[in-house]
Amino acid sequence: MTVFGRSHAISETAVLPLRVGGALSWRIRLRGVAVSVLGLGLLALLMAMNMRIGEIEMTLAEVVAGTFDQASAAHFVIMELRLPRALTGALVGAALALSGAIIQSIARNPLASPEILGVTTGASVTVVAGVVFSGSVYGGTSGLLSTLGIPALALLGGLVGATVVYGLAWRRGLDGYRLVLVGIGVAAVFTNVKFWLLTVGDVNDTGRAMVWITGSLNGRGWEHVVPTALALAVLVPVTLLGTRSLDALRFSDDTVVSLGVRTNLARALLILAAVLLAAVATASAGPIAFVALASPQIALRLVRSGRPPLLCSAIIGAVLTTGADLIARTAFSPLELPVGIVTAVLGAPYLIHLIWRAQKWAQK
Amino acid sequence: MGAEVRLQTAAVRLGYGDRIVVDGLDLGIEAGSVTTIIGPNGCGKSTLLRALGRLLKPQGGEVLLDGKRIDKIPTREVAKILGVLPQAPTAPEGLTVADLVARGRHPHQTWYRQWSSDDEDAVATALDMTGLADLAERPLDELSGGQRQRAWISMALAQGTDLLLLDEPTTFLDLAHQVEVLELVRHLHREAGRTVVMVLHDLNLAARYADRLVAMRAGKVIAAGSPHEVLTEELLGDVFELDAKVIEDPVAGTPLVVPIRPRSHPAA
């Protein structure tokens, strides 16, 4: 038809209809494809650098040789130390960014992130409590707590935190604005509980807890990669199925209902997916700051879409986290920083920029 | 008369929490008619329209769409039969006209069928009918009030429903744009056979563009029928507490209300 033959439906960028027979049809956003491809390329590059650089420097050829020569020392370094750590970083970054993209779309607010859902702050409280209390009872790291205990505690705390926020924000339906306000309030309470626990705890225990609540990829192995990957394998497709509802949910509720969307159900399922994504990521690597906040907004600007694009956000989250961890590992070598410090240092100016823009927008 | 009833309320009770706005109201909307609900502010006319469009769940009684309880029909199926344009709708920032209209195809799409040629045709037709084809790529914020309202109606048209509910489609528009929107509604009714229910404030325009007027006061239907039957000097006193003279509209021949003074006015 005339209108669409000329320039296609979506405003900001070229969109091509992709049709297979009469039954299958999609709209392909060219900029989204380009950003995804470039992002995956950048991710591959950063992963390769993460394999090469470290206490033992390797050339790319040595990395490849070491990967396949099981007897070499390089094999252990790559397959047991660097690869699982880099993979954890990429997966966790993707999960956080996807979670952020969902929440920002539903709250219609670029400043929203999983933190306002109570996930990261809730996880921090339970993990700090676990470390502080078990530490003083057993007088040291118990093996169970450090390998299985902390992720399980974090997952539990994240889900409980999200339930509290959701329960308080629900009033015959879910309003994005109220969710943000309740979330900020609950996060403040959790954060103060966390600080209280840190002050009453033993110095050695709180030191360990501090590393975790900053968000760190140090010493992450396959036991972190596998559960995170499995969770993403389930949650990413579920989330992508919700893309159309997310598009509709940008409108006011009356419009959404009149379009035939089961508004509260769609919103609840999408928030549940966002909570699970953030909780799984936090369980693996602690609450890494700013990835969930910044990645969707970067993706939004690169793709020039109306709301944060889900897949591109996830790819950019993976790139950011992997890049930040490369800096965390190498900037003060041999000392390794927690990756959360790097993302916070990079992210803080960005957050200020966002708030400044939001204020300017509000004044208009 | 005697046409089939598409949309119906039976002893419906509507409200927000404890505040009941409408109680025990019966109303039927016949196929192929343009029904306009009039009444003073706060009389429950928008509330009634929202209930007819299943945007508000009744606290009692029921709303029937083609004889079936509307809340028992999957909302997506309802969206293929009935389009609602809410009062003063808002769109995400930066959205273009084409984006907005394309959103109307939502109930017809699935994850594997997101942009069929049917969708494309329906959107193009909707844009043509509302005269917006040339503005399709313009952001909604850049349009005039009348154009923007036409874009929203266009979205409801792309939805492809033969029932349309419009909640104060002319609010905030100047007279020329009000007439422009109502001419479009008349066109949809006459050329495309749509059944339309709308809420309007302007009685003279309501009389001119409706087959049937429903006058409400305090949650009750006071009168329903043709504009000539409903818009009488007596009813204006009862419903709007307004002393007025009703003469014949020299252009359309419909009743024309010339207000004199409110009944509560101290000078009366």
Secondary-structure map with pairings?
The complex is a heterodimer of chains A (364) and B (268).
Chain A: H1 2-7, E1 15-20, E2 24-29, H2 30-52, H3 60-68, H4 73-107, H5 119-138, H6 143-169, H7 176-200, H8 203-214, H9 222-241, H10 243-248, H11 253-258, H12 263-285, H13 291-303, H14 310-330, H15 339-363
Antiparallel strand pairs in A: 1-2
Chain B: E1 5-16, E2 19-30, E3 34-38, H1 45-52, E4 60-65, E5 68-69, H2 75-81, E6 82-85, H3 97-103, H4 117-129, H5 145-158, E7 163-167, H6 175-192, E8 195-199, H7 203-209, E9 212-217, E10 220-225, H8 227-230, H9 233-240, E11 242-248, E12 255-262
Parallel strand pairs in B: 3-8, 3-9, 6-7, 7-8
Antiparallel strand pairs in B: 1-2, 1-4, 4-5, 9-10, 11-12
Structure notes:
The complex is a heterodimer of chains A (364) and B (268). Chain A has 364 residues and is mainly alpha-helical. Chain A has a single domain (10-362), classed as ABC transporter involved in vitamin B12 uptake, BtuC (Orthogonal Bundle). Chain A contains 15 helices and two strands. A two-stranded antiparallel sheet of chain A has the order 1-2. In chain A, strand 1 and strand 2 (24-29) form a beta hairpin. The longest helix of chain A has 35 residues, at 73-107. Chain B is α/β, with parallel strands linked by helices and 268 residues long. In chain B, 32% of the residues lie in helices and 29% in strands. Chain B contains nine helices and twelve strands. A six-stranded mixed β-sheet of chain B has the order 6-7-8-3-9-10, sandwiched between helices. In chain B, strands 2-1-4-5 form a four-stranded antiparallel β-sheet, covered by helices on one side. In chain B, strands 11-12 form a two-stranded antiparallel ribbon. In chain B, strand 7 (163-167), helix 6 and strand 8 form a beta-alpha-beta unit. In chain B, helix 3 (97-103) runs parallel beside helix 5. The longest helix of chain B has 18 residues, at 175-192. Classes of the chains: A mainly alpha (364), B alpha/beta (268). At the A-B interface, helix 1, strand 2, helix 10 and helix 11 of A face helix 2, strand 6, helix 3 and helix 4 of B.
